Amino acid sequence: MMKSSTIRTFQTVHTWTGLLAGFALFVAFFAGALTVFHHDIATWQNPPWRSQPARDMPVQTMIDRLLQAHPKAGAYFGIVLSPPGSAQGPYAYWNDGEEHFATPDRLEQATADEDAPTRSHLADFVYALHDSLGIPVVGLYLMGIVSVIYGLALVSGLLIHLPQLLGDLFALRPGRNLKRLWQDAHNAIGVLSLPFHIVFAVTGALMCLFVPLFASLNLVAFDGKLNEAFAKAIATAPTVEAAGRAAPTLPADVLIARAKAAALATGVSTFEPDYIHFTHYGDANALVQVRGVSERTLGTYGTIALHGVTGEVLEEHVGATHTTNGLVNSSIYALHFGNFGGRAVQWLYFLLGLAGAFLFYSGNLLWIESRRKRRHAEQPGKTWVMARATVGICIGTCLGIAAAFAATAAADMLGTDPAVPMRAACYGSVAFAVAYACLRPVARAAVELLAITAIAYVAVALLDLARNAATWSQPWTPASTAVLGVDIAGIALGIGFAWLARASWRRATHGDVFSVWTHARQVRAEA
Predict the structure, then answer these.
(1) What span, in angstroms and rounded, lies between the C-alpha atoms of 249 and 90?
(2) Per-residue pLDDT tens for 405-426?
(3) 249 contacts 74 by C-beta, under 8 angstroms
(4) Share of the chain above pLDDT 90, in %
(5) In the sheet where 287-293 sits, what is the strand order?
(6) Which residue of 159, 414, 475, 511 has the fewest CB atoms within a 10 Å radius of its CB?
(7) How far apart are CA 110 and CA 101, in angstroms?
């Protein structure tokens, strides 16, 4: 039996680690739930029936134009392919001593900014909110530290509830004691989703802190030799030297088709190429690597290495043919993003993401309820600060993402680049929500912001449904299904926020008059 003083220590650790990381984790989980449908959001932004000529450029045409504009790129370059079913365009990467990135329509004006080709992509912006709060470089490391704190909160929470785990697991006691109901819901969701949260914490910390961890280990434990050892451990193709003799490299479509056939022959059910990389293009020893995503295997990201001239398969790293190192590396991404099991697992991860966001939101509500004075009109300032921050940041994040969708659609209709409008709409909405929560009575602010958020999600979805009205009468395609799915999910989220607005209004009207969430308290204070 654990001592009561030990449990109190763990409770303190759990509370403060949760509060410190809670706001960042709410953003990460809510945006992460949407990121599960990354390709569907990309298709929603650029469905094939609204594609532009530059985005329709065949891969081989793009390669020919790239090498015509930058002949030195042939030694080492790659093409990031369009997501399946989307009109979102591919883009090129090459290294001729310096790194360059370019979209098909800007091959002559390449940039060293690796985010430039995807800056207008809504799906990538939502992903950036998930993995770095949208803050370049520093945000990624910040989320790595947050993931470590998150892991500490999980361990301390498990130790707190371990003694009465089974007894309290399925306890959900509705009634007038709302704090107890929030506590029951918080505990049940936390315990039931614990295995997934452990996966998210561990893989999130590894992905976000990979660079500083790698650099530290290389310096401290590997005497500067880790780079070479790591490159060998995860290599997916043989090392080849240029022959120095010119020979035509096979067309990209042929190489992709051969790689896909070779991958499916290993036993995986799917292999959707998303990247093709060339080394020594146009040389007799040209090497090609085709990377793709497979479902229903933990090694979701796989690679087929081919001889660029003959098309001979040189190495296979797909599904069961992964090396142990490759399987571990690929599994980290598969377990974190849930792209290993098709639609069923995607929806499971979507619900787990929303449940995770609720976990941190409810944690803040419990902290507020635990520290407010009972039967006192005046409440401590820290409870007001936490209440306003919770309303402003959490609801503001949900509103901001809806605003980003709206700005992206508006920019597309106006024919302008959505990169700036989507960010301005998102961050502007969060700032607006925080200011609104600070200036309005917090109970009213919560209800009104939830209502605005509900309207925003439903309005964006209905507008898009109307905008694509002609498509719904055409034969159904995977792209039209994806677009419709995003719109329906938006309407469902809108209904959910409307329900939360109504529940918040009922609590403000009929709940404890000494709570920070009541209208009565505000009326009395104003009187």
Answers:
(1) 20
(2) 999 999 999 989 999 999 999 9
(3) no
(4) 41
(5) 99-102, 91-95, 76-80, 272-279, 287-293, 301-307, 313-317
(6) 475
(7) 5
Q: DSSP character for 297?
A: S
The whole-angstrom separation of Cα 314 and Cα 247 is 18
Question: What is the amino acid identity at position 12?
Answer: T
Please give the pLDDT value at position 527: 40
Tell which residue, 332, 422, 353, 482, has the closest CA to residue 32: 353
Beta bridge partners of 273: 292
Q: How far apart are CA 145 and CA 151, in angstroms?
A: 10
**Which residue, chain included where needed, has tokens 């015509």?**
68
Name the CA radius of gyration of the chain, rounded: 26
412's CB contacts (< 8 A; 6+ apart) are 45, 50, 418
φ, ψ of residue 102 in degrees (nearest 5): -160, 145
Burial of residue 379 (CB within 10 Å: 0-12, 13-18, 19+) is: middle
Look at residues 254, 307, 243, 282 and name the one whose alpha carbon lies nearest to residue 67: 282
- pLDDT tens for residues 159-208? 776 666 666 666 666 666 666 776 777 777 777 777 888 888 888 888 88
Nearest CA to 456 among 502, 411, 407? Answer: 407
d(CA 417, CA 119) in angstroms, rounded, equals: 9
d(CA 57, CA 236): 28
Give burial (CB, 10 Å; 0-12/13-18/19+) of 154: buried
Alpha carbon 498 to its chain's center: 24
Closest CA to 101 of 79, 131, 125: 79
CA 377/CA 365 separation, integer angstroms: 19
pTM for this prediction: 0.83
Number of other residues whose CB lies within 10 A of the CB of residue 41: 27
CA distances to 273, 462, 480, 484 from 45, in Å: 21, 15, 12, 12
Q: Are 402 and 459 in contact (CB under 8 A)?
A: no
* CA pseudo-torsion sign 209, 210, 213, 216: negative
Rounded Cα distance between 36 and 32, Å, is: 6
CA 373 to chain centre: 39
Taking the C-alpha atoms of residue 110 and residue 102, their distance in angstroms, rounded to an integer, is 5
Cα–Cα distance measured from residue 408 to residue 416, given in angstroms and rounded to the nearest whole number: 9
Residue with tokens 């034969």: 475
